[in-house]
Design goal:
This protein has about 180 residues and is α+β, with helices and mostly antiparallel strands. It has helices spanning about 5-20, 85-100, 115-120; strands spanning about 45-50, 55, 60-65, 70-75, 80, 140-150, 155-160, 165-170, 180. It has one domain: Mannose-Binding Protein A, Chain A. The longest helix is centred in the first third of the chain and has 14 residues, at about 5-20. The radius of gyration is 19 Å and the shape is globular. The N and C termini lie far apart (about 60 Å).
Length: about 180
């Protein structure tokens, strides 16, 4: 039996890639900077636009604000500058929003936990590491989660939408915020 050549295997890989479903490696993602060799982790098809400045992430059922706090949704993009908050200020900002008019007709917005926030990182993109079609004008910066750091009472977890990294930092540091609510 004749041994297959390397070009044969490359051809098989090309055919296999072409046959992949749309929601896998070839899924649509909008990035400022993109490595198309990386499988999309938050393809546009995974989100439903609710028409009110929010989207539902179908795999998790979570409803996300499309803009960071401090920005405003104009129907197609996020305008303005994302506000920075210490960790406690971020928690308080969500409560203040809910105690007031709320957002998109809901008063149960909250800071996402570490895993929820990391679930919207788009690994195919960098600077920012987020699907810009879903979350336009997201700063390439750290965002707070609601998760405190277990090994240090003065720290909490954040997600860096510049690199996609996750880390713990002092609660007195100022980061940006994107709010979430559970789907119902």
């Amino acid at each position: 039996m004749k041994r297959a050549t390397g070009s044969f295997f490359i051809g098989l890989l090309a055919v296999a890639w072409f046959l992949l479903p749309l929601n896998s490696a070839r899924a649509e993602v909008t990035c400022a900077n993109q490595n198309s060799a990386v499988t999309a982790t938050t393809p546009t098809a995974d989100f439903s636009d609710n028409g009110d400045g929010t989207v539902t992430h179908t795999p998790t059922g979570l409803i996300w604000m499309r803009c960071s706090l401090g920005q405003s949704w104009d129907g197609s993009t996020c305008n303005g500058t994302a506000t920075t908050y210490t960790w406690q200020q971020a928690l308080d900002a969500a409560q203040t929003l809910n105690d007031g008019a709320g957002y998109a007709g809901h008063n149960d917005w909250r800071l996402p936990n570490k895993n929820e926030l990391e679930s919207i990182v788009e690994r195919r993109c960098w600077s920012p590491t987020i699907n810009a079609a879903i979350f336009p004008n997201t700063p390439s910066a750290w965002f707070w989660s609601s998760s405190p750091y277990a090994y240090g009472a003065n720290d909490a977890w954040g997600v860096n939408f510049g690199s996609g990294g996750v880390g713990n930092y002092g609660k007195n540091v100022s980061y940006r915020v994107r709010l979430v609510r559970a789907g119902q």
